[in-house]
C-alpha cells in the first residue's frame, strides 16, 4: 500500500504543479493580450476558473494524504498516545465519510445533472468541471484508508512495546 501511496502522491504532485504552471502561463497571456495587444482572449478567464477548481480539489486530496490539512490541535496535544490515536482515527473516518457521501455521491449527482450544460467560452460540458468533486473524493477516501492503516500499525507497535 505504501508503494501505491507514493505513486499517487507523485502523480498528484506532477498534475498539480503542471496545472499551476499552465494557469500561470494562461493568466500571463490574458494580461498581455488585454493590455499590450489590445485584443483580450475570450477563453482564458474560463479556463483559469475551471483549472482552479480542479487544482484546489486535487490539492485538498493531496494535503489529506500528507496529513497537512488544517487542524485544531488543542485537544489532541493534551491526549496521551492511545487516546490521541483514537482521536486521529475518528478524524480520518470523518474524512472518509465526508468524502464518500458529499464528494463522491454528491459529486456524481452534480456531474450527471450538469453534463448537458455547455460552458460559454470553452464549449465544454460543465459536468467535466464538477467531475473534480468525485475524483478528489475518491482520492481522499484512498488517503484516509492509508492513514487509518498507518494509525492501526502505530497502535499495534505501541501495544507490543508496552
UniProtKB/TrEMBL annotation:
<keyword id="KW-0472">Membrane</keyword>
<keyword id="KW-0813">Transport</keyword>
<dbReference type="InterPro" id="IPR055348">
    <property type="entry name" value="DctQ"/>
</dbReference>
<feature type="domain" description="Tripartite ATP-independent periplasmic transporters DctQ component">
    <location>
        <begin position="23"/>
        <end position="152"/>
    </location>
</feature>
<comment type="similarity">
    <text>Belongs to the TRAP transporter small permease family.</text>
</comment>
<feature type="transmembrane region" description="Helical">
    <location>
        <begin position="12"/>
        <end position="32"/>
    </location>
</feature>
<feature type="transmembrane region" description="Helical">
    <location>
        <begin position="85"/>
        <end position="108"/>
    </location>
</feature>
<feature type="transmembrane region" description="Helical">
    <location>
        <begin position="47"/>
        <end position="64"/>
    </location>
</feature>
<keyword id="KW-1133">Transmembrane helix</keyword>
<keyword id="KW-0812">Transmembrane</keyword>
<feature type="transmembrane region" description="Helical">
    <location>
        <begin position="128"/>
        <end position="149"/>
    </location>
</feature>
<dbReference type="InterPro" id="IPR007387">
    <property type="entry name" value="TRAP_DctQ"/>
</dbReference>
<keyword id="KW-0997">Cell inner membrane</keyword>
<protein>
    <submittedName>
        <fullName>TRAP-type C4-dicarboxylate transport system permease small subunit</fullName>
    </submittedName>
</protein>
<dbReference type="Pfam" id="PF04290">
    <property type="entry name" value="DctQ"/>
</dbReference>
<keyword id="KW-1003">Cell membrane</keyword>
Amino acid at each position: 500500500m505504501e508503494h501505491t501511496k507514493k505513486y499517487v502522491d507523485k502523480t498528484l504532485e506532477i498534475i498539480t504543479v503542471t496545472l499551476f504552471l499552465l494557469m500561470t502561463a494562461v493568466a500571463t497571456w490574458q494580461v498581455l493580450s488585454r493590455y499590450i495587444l489590445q485584443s483580450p482572449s475570450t477563453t482564458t478567464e474560463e479556463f483559469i476558473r475551471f483549472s482552479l477548481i480542479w487544482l484546489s480539489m486535487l490539492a485538498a486530496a493531496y494535503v489529506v494524504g500528507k496529513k497537512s490539512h488544517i487542524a485544531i490541535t488543542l485537544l489532541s496535544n493534551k491526549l496521551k498516545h492511545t487516546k490521541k490515536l483514537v482521536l486521529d482515527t475518528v478524524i480520518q473516518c470523518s474524512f472518509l465519510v465526508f468524502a464518500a457521501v458529499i464528494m463522491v455521491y454528491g459529486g456524481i449527482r452534480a456531474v450527471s445533472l450538469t453534463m448537458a450544460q455547455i460552458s460559454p467560452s470553452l464549449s465544454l460540458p460543465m459536468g467535466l468541471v464538477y467531475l473534480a468533486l468525485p475524483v478528489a473524493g475518491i482520492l481522499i477516501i484512498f488517503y484516509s484508508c492509508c492513514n487509518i492503516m498507518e494509525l492501526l500499525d502505530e497502535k499495534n507497535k505501541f501495544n507490543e512495546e508496552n
